[in-house]
Design a protein that fits this description.
Structural class: alpha/beta
Radius of gyration: 31 Å
Largest sheet: 7 strands, mixed
Number of helices: 13
CATH superfamily of the largest domain: HUPs
Strand content: 15-25%
Bound molecules: adenosine-5'-triphosphate, magnesium ion
Number of strands: 27
Strand order of the largest sheet: 12-25-26-27-23-24-13
Number of domains: 3
CATH architecture of the largest domain: 3-Layer(aba) Sandwich
């Protein structure tokens, strides 16, 4: 596995232009040599058959980023040539996600279906030029006639139909005279081409399906390979950037431009798609996860979708930073998901306020603290950011600490609380555990402690030092909360790999979601807004989920604090 990016970059300016990459080099050269006559123009062309994922974010950052860096334009174009799979819900989610990532297509929103009339007209033009024909072979026959990588294909018996017959049949295809799948329109290129894509590819198929925008107007639909270059030509795209699997389609792309729109500028360039470990990225698989209920919708915080990452608490800045760090290459690689997590930690380190939340509470009573008294301690919001200020946090006789922060029989090097031991409560006082209270079955239900009033944080120096500092909440002001903890959705690094001989869903991590119902958070968090992000001291970064109700906030853990990726990078150096 290859990991990408560098860990040691300090604070970053997200507004700056894209770093150099090979496509930018091509553009710079095209501008210098005058190869591109007009403005640099790119497009992001999603098929509206699912929600966008982090791989799409890479393509969005690249296409919109190239346009911005070169004073050019980037269009949003829905590649909606396949009527049976597309839904308006996806169109809307895609627009929302692109905007949320921080990009804008202004008034340049297009649909491949806007060009159905043009595509038809140009297909007729190809027929008239003797460069396209109606073929009656079945799809299996077409496949058999196509040959293999080592053997040339065979001409279709319909290849030499007259232009008149082709024009007539194609028109009747359009008019609905023939059954679905009974005929196709094919380009007449070269059945012996070493490139399989050039062996008379299909341009049009008959398909009676209602289209989300054109309704039942058409019963023939153009193929992606045909409509895509034409869409690029119509929109004056100069650099048509796509992923590597289309490299073999480039000669066909060029053929359509030459034969339909000679002189049009678009040229196709391919870059490596993003793969992440512990993740699946194919829309078909993501769709299965949603439809078969393995996750709670496209925006489930465990999903690699933009909406899932957003709901988890990722910021647009962190995703753009990630896309910048992984770079744009011509060779496929797998990026460590730890790098994505590293990017959000870096972004939130200065931005997120640090607050206290106790996920598994254990009651502490300070026996020498006055009953019913509450004092409000001043605690800084973020030591990394002097502008973040401070807040008042209540302190009193009854508190909660984390169950895990107490051990009745402490193991070696346990610097937290144990019988007779002392710890500092963050931003407050040193306390000493005097007594352990248990219920009838022997469970620890309360610690009775004393506090030392001379050890107030920020107060006069007491000269006393203890090894452990614990987070806590004061009992009467604490707010109950639900906290959702996440792990990778898959237990193996490459769930797509069929070597395991099983379906990818069998590799789902059964612990990918853990819900903690009885958490307690400091009162400050009653004002939190959906998507607002915090650092819960010692627990990680969290964001407020939309499932929150008044009096019962729900928090998603974005990432724990420990940065495995930075650590890996360190040991690798
Ligand atoms: P499917 O899973 O349905 O094959 P797709 O990847 O082809 O999906 P599209 O909606 O056609 O999805 O993709 C829109 C654009 O995003 C295309 O230009 C595509 O190359 C790019 N893209 C898709 N997946 C990735 C990825 N993992 N990394 C980088 N770019 C991607
Ligand atoms: Mg696609």
């Amino acid at each position: 596995m290859t990991t990408a990016g560098t860990a040691d970059e300090a604070s970053r300016d997200f507004s700056r232009e894209l770093p150099a990459n090979f496509i930018q080099d091509i553009i710079s050269n095209d501008l210098k040599t005058g190869k591109v006559r007009s403005t640099i123009h790119t497009r992001f062309p999603p098929e509206p058959n699912g929600y966008l994922h982090i791989g799409h974010a890479k393509s969005i950052c690249l296409n919109f980023g190239l346009a911005k860096a070169n004073n050019g334009l980037c269009n949003l174009r829905f590649d909606d040539t396949n009527p049976s799979k597309e839904e308006t819900e996806f169109v809307e989610s895609i627009m929302r996600d692109v905007r949320w990532l921080g990009f804008d297509w202004d008034d340049r929103l297009y649909y491949a279906s806007d060009y159905f009339d043009k595509c038809y007209e140009w297909a007729v033009q190809l027929i008239k030029a003797g460069k396209a024909y109606v073929c009656d072979l079945s799809s299996e026959e077409i496949r058999a006639y196509r040959g293999t990588l080592t053997e040339p294909g065979k001409d279709s018996p319909y290849r030499n139909r007259s232009i008149e017959e082709n024009l007539n049949l194609f028109e009747r295809m359009k008019n609905g005279d023939f059954l679905d799948g009974s005929r196709v329109l094919r380009a007449k290129i070269d059945m012996a081409s070493p490139n399989m894509n050039m062996r008379d590819p299909v341009l049009y198929r008959i398909m009676r399906a209602t289209h989300h925008r054109t309704g039942d107007k058409w019963c023939i639909y153009p193929m992606y390979d045909y409509s895509h270059p034409l869409g690029d030509a119509i929109e004056n795209i100069t650099h048509s950037v796509c992923t590597l699997e289309f490299a073999d389609h480039r000669p066909l792309y060029d053929w359509f431009i030459e034969n339909v729109r000679p002189g049009a500028e678009p040229h196709q360039y391919e870059f490596a798609r993003l793969n992440l470990n512990y993740t699946v990225m194919s829309k078909r698989k993501l769709r299965r996860l949603v439809e078969e209920g393995y996750v709670n919708g496209w925006d489930d915080p465990r999903m690699p979708t933009i909406s899932g990452l957003r709901r988890r608490g990722y910021t647009p800045e962190s995703i753009r930073d990630f896309c910048e760090r992984i770079g744009v290459a011509k060779r496929d690689s797998v990026v460590d998901i730890g790098l994505l997590e590293h990017c959000i930690r870096e972004d939130l380190n200065r931005k997120a306020r640090r607050v206290m939340a106790v996920l598994k509470p254990l009651k502490v009573v300070l026996t020498n603290y006055p009953e019913n008294a509450v004092e409000w301690l001043d605690i800084e919001n973020n030591p990394e950011n002097p502008d973040a200020g401070s807040r008042k946090v209540p302190f009193g006789r009854e508190l909660y600490i984390e169950q895990d922060d107490f051990m009745e029989v402490p193991v070696k090097k346990f610097f937290r609380l144990s019988p007779g031991g002392e710890v500092r409560l963050k931003g407050a006082f040193i306390i000493k555990c005097e007594e352990v209270v248990k219920d009838a079955s022997g469970n620890i239900i309360e610690l009775r402690c004393t506090y030392d009033p001379n050890t107030r944080s920020g107060g006069p120096a007491s000269g006393r030092k203890v090894k452990g500092t614990l987070h806590w909440v004061q009992a009467s002001h604490a707010i109950p909360a639900e906290v959702r903890l996440y792990e990778n959705l898959f237990i193996v690094e490459d769930p797509d790999n069929d070597e395991y001989g099983t379906d990818f869903v069998s590799k789902i991590n059964p612990n990918s979601l853990q819900v903690l119902q009885n958490c307690l958070v400091e009162p400050e968090l009653a004002q939190a807004q959906v998507e607002e992000r915090f650092q819960f001291l010692r627990h990680g970064y969290f964001s407020l989920d939309q499932d929150s109700k008044p009096g019962l906030p729900v928090f998603n853990r974005i990432v724990p604090l420990r940065d495995s990726w930075a650590k890996i990078q360190k040991t690798a150096q």
